[in-house]
């Protein structure tokens, strides 16, 4: 099926502009289809439709929203091979990865469907009245989470499905009851068009209002800024670079009505190798990490870009084996030209810094935008004195830091900025000797891993994907897992309301059977006793 | 006991500055004691001590933090009459109010003590491993809330106890495990000194680290800005004016590492009078609201500054009775000179606007900084065309808007900005006819009240005190009630950690007996079955 290249604005397909861009096949190095950039009128229409849709969609029951989310998953699957081929072509990623990512995307949609269908996510909290309390009567107060309004989602380059058009941000924002406007990523406009069509199809089939979803083509600096600055927009989800995320964050904070921007901006994800572990299995750990560093051409926000240990024979063994392993891994095409260019420049700059030595690099090959796996080493002292070494090189690169001892290791950990993850590779029995190190690693990160690799972000209730700044703009929230819905909801309290006028979630007889905190106790029971309103 | 006028920096009392200010008795119109402004060195020391204290305090158990909070409540009570007299003198508020507010302050501290002693507030979420899952094994992940770091609290003028030095912001930040630095409010420096001494005493008695609490004297524009911009500070609590809150918010957002400012900036708290209610009890409602408008000289963030209804005989009756009631209420001294000046100017400006008519005012009397209760009326059309009428006049003033019908009433509600509260005065049986009105009122506010008054903010689990901007900088959080603790905590996930290295809250056997979400189900039981890590 040929792609139409238009903007999807609610249930309409529009392309009044004469300005267009081409999608691109990074592996073959050739232009693909034509996509029209959204005009100002089209942007205004999408915003207007979103505001209109919010007026009804915000009151849809959890069950209805679940039907919509499930239908999106079904429609995505129904796109079949065309989706897989388009995403592979546009991203340069292999079939297995894209099929896996489609599964993850559908899994996320179904998980949020389950969450809102069950309904307890609204954190219903009820305090019943005490009319006779002294010195003042206590009123009946009941609180629950409700949606905030239209959400703008910036699709991510490195997850063309799971963190893009129908990815975690979209799924959680829709689940909470908010219309979504997606700014398509320039790196996979065809994939976006297919997915946006699937969402629109699902919305029509399940009776959602026009404008509950739109997808626009355009540049971050123009379309992106315009969306974030518009008064109708109440929240923003973003996954991408530090500069991109901060540009949106600053624009949103300077609005007359500031709004939150949940930007997940990646990090270097330090890995701490403790001596006992290295003594036992230095080679094994090196092999494990060669795999993690180069997974998906190193294009994960959780890619381990920094490996820390204490200088010595075991550490040398680790570095030697890691270097050897890295040499044997074939370079692969990166997501797009800009990412490849920035990888080349970042790596070059890193290798020129004082004290940095190459520890191993794969052979360069013929091919487009190849990311050549590379590892380097530097001393703890040099690392501490050079903040340039703390920066992320997005791609299959990792810097190994050899520290003089436990104290310097702790200093190095605390010197790096906020991180999505940190990892401790250790024998269980050495943890008590290194408690300060474990504490330090936990305190700088949103997720701390023991004897594993940071890549691979499980979509579940317990996931925290979001760390202290600059890993994210707001480390109090996660962009992966069910708690991601909390970004797009706010509490609303009802005081002294009659039963009939309360939302079902807050009615005394608990018709939805959800978990609620009633007078301080979690329960799924109806509110007991006489209720004074 | 004479006041020393010094800054409390951890366990030290310092006053190296030659710059000082006097506290002030607004009723008597005379200067009281001398207070030294914090020097740059003293500010730096307080920040340094807070950072140091965080390194240990963050790991204190809920039980130990509860002891500290309980001890603060005890020490505040032990201040006895000196506290009551000082607060009365500095605020101009009557004894009953100050004694009530002390009770509320102690109640808040004990409520947070109970919350962290019980422990479930950390939202522990556990997903156990599935090593055999296809296509990839599922890791063991466990998440809980942990403290964020030193918090700066700006004491509020209108609650010299309950939202100041040991108020809700301080109590919730300490409960979460964060050191607190208070910027004392210039309006009650003596009250601050006494309370700060009580907190310090409690900290020493219960073995808290030096620097877990400091209190500094200084101006918002210098000390306040310096604190908010300092990298050690990770979060800010503020209650006060829109301009004051936004100055801090903008400064915090422009930091290299942006931090959240939870500013509760007040609102006009619209009250909607539905016709059925007025038909039945217009006089009663008018009397009830005359009381609410003038409570505490109108100096509550939930003061009803805007009353909306549909034009007609009943509305006229309401306005007439309200005007008469207001005339009979004696003016009283406002909190300070600045608040009084701003009340006078705001009221004057309001009464000069097109279409605004005086509906009743109390007689002016001899006295210092008297807030004269005043109500005015205006048509819905004039209100809609003049955004100046939407602004808050902080004090005992309320504007009554008479709308031409249901549709204009809805328009008026939706035209006002975000609010802390909105109120519906109605007969139960007319709610279904006015559903759009109820929806509109709920959508602009953090708390919607049925047949009550917005003043009186219950401290409980279900309270939401924080609304859409500009009522608060972040309507997703509350500054009153137990959920206020969420402002000062972030989730941290542990992946694959051995039992011994996990915090107690996340250990499989649940030694603290807290509520946890285990594999999607809320339970207080230990994690069942074999646990693969």
TrEMBL record, chains A, B:
InterPro entries: Ald_DH/histidinol_DH (IPR016161), Ald_DH_C (IPR016163), Ald_DH_N (IPR016162), Aldehyde_DH_dom (IPR015590), Aldehyde_DH_Superfamily (IPR050740), ALDH_KGSADH (IPR044151)
GO function terms (MF aspect): oxidoreductase activity, acting on the aldehyde or oxo group of donors, NAD or NADP as acceptor
CDD domains the record matches: ALDH_KGSADH
Protein keywords: Oxidoreductase
Keyword Oxidoreductase attributed: yes
Segments forming domain Aldehyde dehydrogenase: 17-467
Entry protein name: Ketoglutarate semialdehyde dehydrogenase
Organism of derivation: Fulvivirga imtechensis AK7
